């Protein structure tokens, strides 16, 4: 009888030990993302490969002006975009002359002169632009940031004109010496002759005369684990402790740094307020530091573009005085030849498609990104169409009654359907008051 009791007690202890081990492994705070399903677990600590800053610097769109008020647009990764941008990268631009933006009749140039206009969104520092273009700037031009480059021909003029627009808005720089002939520019412009025509009222945005074809995609997705992120961000993960906030978010901290995870949004926010300043700070240096930081703390899980490097206190990209906090953002793009590549919108319903960093005096103090990753090899794609012509013009006219339209660009809205991420094409409409709407 005693032996039977001992046997039952021993079996009960073994069973209790197994149950306790299960809860330790699978029910520790923050482990939910690691055990959602077998295919959601990633063993490596890296979220993606390292990236060179040169691969993150490219125009968000290319506008081709063909004269007679005819225009078309090429987007990243499309055939003619790649061809033209690679040729321009091989040309030299020298002897920059500073001029007022009011010295030019841009409406006339846009309508009458064949040319190529490169848009860089919020802007890119000249010292970074030098990494992808052959520029020889003087000290004044080197301190600027550029949001547009316009290369065009003038009738009866034997040389091409190359204008670089400062983000300050009132100044442009003209390259007196440009290694581009009139024939080079005309050849690039001719690529757009058989492409979808676009119309514009004032050059702020362009509307296609017909529907625009994009790829709609459904991609299996997974989650990087909190353990992986701790390993990427903390020197000693054994010293971190766990705090659960009232709103359900989870915080891991080693008393100096903190990692906050929003399980509903699959979004992480890392903060290091005690980071030691690196010294002098400029938009270019901070952008380079931000790229290095992402390379060292996770990597790049997709195709990205430097979208902004701006002071928190200002709307425009500044020269910077080295003492303010600067926010550097990288926009994720999706797409490929021949349809082009377009930005993935970060939405309140699903935070995805961007990487944000904040720097103080050249040192990263915060780092935000999604924990979602995509299994591109199993993507299911189909062609979808965005509205164009009179239909789109009518929609935009209705929207403009609230605030003038500032920009129009194709984009993707992300949404989660179980363990799959859907990317649905939309028109992203940016209004002059800063608000953003979508049309599909």
From TrEMBL:
Regulatory protein YycH domain boundaries: 3-430
A family per Pfam: YycH
InterPro entries the record matches: YycH, YycH/YycI_2
Domain of life: Bacteria
Transmembrane segments: none
The protein's name: Regulatory protein YycH domain-containing protein
Source species of the chain: Paenibacillus agri
């Amino acid at each position: 009888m005693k032996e039977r009791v001992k046997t039952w007690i021993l079996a009960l202890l073994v069973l209790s030990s197994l149950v306790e081990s299960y809860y330790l492994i699978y029910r520790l705070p923050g482990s939910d993302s690691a055990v959602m399903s077998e295919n959601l677990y990633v063993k490596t600590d890296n979220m993606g490969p390292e990236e060179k800053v040169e691969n993150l610097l490219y125009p968000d769109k290319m506008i081709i002006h063909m004269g007679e008020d005819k225009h078309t647009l090429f987007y990243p990764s499309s055939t003619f975009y790649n061809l033209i941008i690679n040729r321009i990268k091989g040309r030299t631009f020298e002897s920059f002359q500073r001029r007022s933006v009011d010295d030019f009749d841009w409406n006339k140039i846009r309508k009458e002169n064949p040319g190529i206009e490169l848009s860089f969104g919020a802007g890119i520092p000249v010292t970074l632009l030098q990494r992808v273009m052959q520029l020889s700037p003087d000290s004044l031009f080197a301190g600027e940031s550029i949001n547009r480059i316009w290369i065009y021909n003038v009738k009866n003029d034997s040389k091409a004109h190359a204008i670089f627009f400062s983000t300050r808005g009132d100044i442009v720089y003209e390259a007196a010496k440009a290694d581009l002939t009139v024939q080079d520019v005309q050849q690039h412009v001719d690529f757009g002759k058989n492409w979808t025509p676009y119309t514009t009222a004032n050059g702020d945005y362009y509307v296609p005369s017909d529907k625009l074809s994009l790829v709609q995609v459904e991609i299996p997705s997974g989650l990087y684990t909190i353990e992986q992120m701790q390993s990427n961000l903390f020197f000693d993960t054994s010293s971190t402790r766990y705090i659960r906030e009232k709103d359900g978010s989870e915080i891991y901290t080693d008393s100096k740094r903190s990692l906050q995870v929003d399980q509903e949004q699959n979004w992480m926010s890392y903060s290091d307020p005690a980071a030691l300043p690196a010294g002098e700070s400029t938009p270019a240096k901070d952008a380079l530091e931000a790229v290095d930081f992402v390379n060292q703390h996770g990597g790049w899980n997709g195709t990205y573009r430097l979208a902004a490097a701006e002071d928190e206190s200002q709307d425009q990209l500044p020269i910077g005085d080295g003492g303010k906090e600067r926010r550097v953002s990288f926009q994720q793009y999706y797409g490929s030849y021949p349809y082009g590549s377009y930005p993935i919108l970060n939405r309140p319903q699903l935070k995805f498609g961007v990487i944000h960093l904040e720097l103080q005096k050249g040192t990263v103090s915060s780092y935000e990104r999604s924990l979602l990753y995509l299994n591109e090899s199993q993507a299911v794609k189909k062609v979808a169409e965005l509205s164009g012509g009179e239909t789109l013009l009518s929609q935009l006219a209705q929207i403009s009654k609230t605030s003038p339209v500032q920009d129009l660009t194709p984009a993707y809205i992300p949404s989660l359907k179980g363990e799959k991420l859907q990317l649905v094409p939309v028109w992203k409409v940016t209004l002059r008051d800063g608000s953003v709407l979508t049309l599909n």
